[in-house]
Amino acid sequence: MRAQFVLSEIGVGLRRNLTMTFAVIVSVALSLALFGGSLLMRDQVSAMKGYWYDKVNISIFLCNKGDAAQDPKCAKGAVTNEQKDQVKIDLEKMPAVQKVEYESADEAYKHYKEQFGDSPLSSSLTPDQMQESYRIKLKDPEKYQVVATAFSGRDGVQSVQDQKGTLDNLFGLLNGMNWAALAVMALMLVVALMLIVNTVRVSAFSRRRETGIMRLVGASSFYIQMPFIMEAAVAGLIGGGVACGMLLVGRYFMIDHGLALSEKLNLITFIGWDAVLAKLPLVLAIGLLMPALAAFFALRKYLKV
């Protein structure tokens, strides 16, 4: 009988404050959708880092005859065979290095022509203007500075370049977008909490006669508060369900169909459905608990029992 009464009171409260309940559902749904989207964005960035950083190479460019006249780092002239061999020996001794590949000036010229054959500069370049280089694959891409420190400024070495720097700019942008989404989510969350508190206030005020009678007949504080807490929890759970639907629909249309990013950007490893499904229980739990806790603390102040 008590359970039936509580459920009936929940239905009455939701119908009385239908407009505010709808606002709570929408605000909770949007804030939790942004929250889930931010978590998925973080997973996506981590997956991309794991994929692309694994392909990152360090390049050690060696001095050629042209560099000797133009670059102070190559003031002692073009790299000698002894210097070239010593660089390779030292690289292979380093624990951080996984693989070393040598690229001759002729090979560099061939690769340049394949990639930039349409460039106006390509017709004026000759193989002897290209630089010999070593391409180094590291066991841990984060150890770039170890190689840079060991070989920068060495005789015969013109520069040490790390492809990771270019990727860091991309991932910095993606992380910035993720933080922006989290900031909007926090704002929406504050709005949702304010709406929940106001909804509870209005609901408690509109039913002050009933709660007064329940207090007189000896009903416990928890029993009086339960319908209000459950109203907020139900509205939050509906909002969490809507947020879950938005995440599923967003993954479906953005990656698999609609925009079909998985087909257009096949060089990127996108997160799978398992990553999305793993976030849904957390979104639903927050959608249920957050409004319930907000209502509980609001009632302690606005419902004197």
**What fraction of residues sit in β-strands?**
5-15%
Side-by-side strand order of the widest sheet: 2-3-1-4
Helix content, binned percent: 55-70%
Return the string of H and E elements. Answer: HHEHHEHEHEHHHHH
Helices and strands: which structural class?
Answer: alpha+beta
- Tell me the number of strands: 4
Alpha-carbon distance between the two ends: 22 Å
Counted by DSSP, the helix tally is 11
What summary fits the major beta sheet?
4 strands, antiparallel
- Measured on Cα atoms, how large is the radius of gyration? 32 Å
User: What is the 3D form?
Assistant: elongated
Low-confidence stretches: none
**pLDDT averaged residue by residue:** 78
Report on this model:
This protein has 305 residues and is of the alpha+beta class. The protein has eleven helices and four strands, in the order ααβααβαβαβααααα. It has helices spanning 2-16, 18-53, 65-70, 81-93, 105-116, 144-151, 164-206, 208-216, 221-256, 261-264, 273-302; strands at residues 57-62, 97-103, 133-138, 157-162. Strands 2-3-1-4 form a four-stranded antiparallel beta sheet. It is elongated, with a radius of gyration of 32 Å.
